[in-house]
Automatic annotation (TrEMBL):
The protein's name: NADPH:quinone oxidoreductase family protein
Source species, domain of life: Bacteria
Domain Enoyl reductase (ER): 11-322
One function term, GO molecular function aspect: zinc ion binding
Record organism: Scleromatobacter humisilvae
């Protein structure tokens, strides 16, 4: 097998394409031949040593991937060789093969393309856990999605619309706002050209938003919170802008509002049965056409450095999917 290996925590430029022995699954693992892997923001943080999880060096990054089971451990009963699956391994996906704990593997229903599956669980799992589980979003409520044209943002738009909410999508360019409207957003705000708080006051006619979905952090957090409605819920997803915001503590007091942390990765670890039920709901919504990953482009795995560069420069609409070069050539 071959893999992009992180041997030092010096960022994407330091990754090395290496030949490695093909691993054999432990009793509770499966070996997957990877057909597609998607790029997520934590994949950048993890090779910089900035993510909550720090695998032992060297490791292959790539948290989310899909492929076909090639071998199963002796204790694995629900997965079989030849089965198409999606996996959330935490790392290992930017390679031709990976061994993953069986509990981190999702069997795919018929008609679920592997490239969509590789761009599915991480973002839709995060969005569903945030909006439906943590925020208890109700039909008729209004949701503000920051960073709305990214992978988790586009997922949040679709999950909120499926729940019957009104969605305001905020992004940094007109092209990104156009994409958000195409996938269901009711209103959009280009926060690079329009003050966010003023725009939200206009769009909501002064009522404010019930839920803020924030994977960005940084400079947009305080104006978004100042536009939150009474009993609003502010979902802390991540800090793609790079800065962890500091909010005045009187703001949640005055609005009767809640600041709600969302750590889907630990939810998966701590509540695997609840996560499995959620993934079943998401697979059903996909099957009914309510949600579908927005894939910016499919790139050969050899172009991983280009993909990282686009991620760092905020140039991706939805998600990038990487495919091993030999499989892409056959497509």
């Amino acid at each position: 097998m071959h893999a992009w290996m992180c041997e030092t925590l010096d960022g994407p430029a330091a990754l090395q394409w290496r030949e490695r022995p093909t691993p054999q699954p432990a009793d509770d693992e499966v070996l997957i031949a990877i057909h597609a892997a998607s790029l997520n923001f934590p994949d950048l943080l993890i090779v910089q040593g900035k993510y909550q999880m720090r695998p032992e060096l060297p490791f292959a990054p790539g948290a989310e991937f899909a492929g076909v089971v090639e071998a199963v451990g002796s204790a694995v009963k629900h997965l079989q060789v030849g089965m198409p699956v999606a996996a959330l391994g935490g790392h290992g996906g930017f390679a031709t093969h990976a061994c993953v704990k069986a509990m981190q593997v999702m069997p795919l229903p018929a008609g679920f393309p592997l490239r969509d599956a590789a761009a599915f669980a991480f973002t839709y799992g995060t969005a569903h856990h945030a909006l439906i589980d943590r925020a208890a979003l109700q039909a008729g409520e209004t949701v503000l999605v920051l960073g709305a044209a990214g992978g988790v943002g586009t997922a949040a738009i679709q999950i909120a619309k499926a729940a019957g909410a009104t969605v305001i999508a905020a992004a940094s360019t007109d092209a990104k706002c156009d994409l958000c409207r195409e996938i269901g957003a009711d209103a959009t705000i280009n926060y690079a050209t329009t003050p966010l708080r003023d725009a939200l006051k206009d769009v909501t006619k002064g009522k404010g938003v019930d839920v803020v979905f924030d994977p960005v952090g940084g400079s947009h957090a305080e104006p978004a919170f100042r536009a939150i409605a009474w009993r609003g819920r502010y979902l802390v997803i991540g800090f793609a802008e790079g800065q962890i915001p500091a909010l005045p503590w009187n703001l949640p007091l005055l609005k009767g509002a809640s600041i709600v942390g969302v750590f889907w990765g630990d939810f998966v670890r701590r509540e695997p049965a609840a996560n499995a039920r959620m993934l079943g709901v998401l697979a059903s919504q996909y099957g009914h056409g309510l949600i579908k990953p927005v894939i910016d482009e499919v790139l050969p795995l050899s172009k991983l450095s280009d993909a990282y560069r686009r991620l760092e420069n905020r140039q991706i609409l939805g998600k990038l999917v990487m495919v091993p070069d030999e499989l892409l050539a056959k497509a």
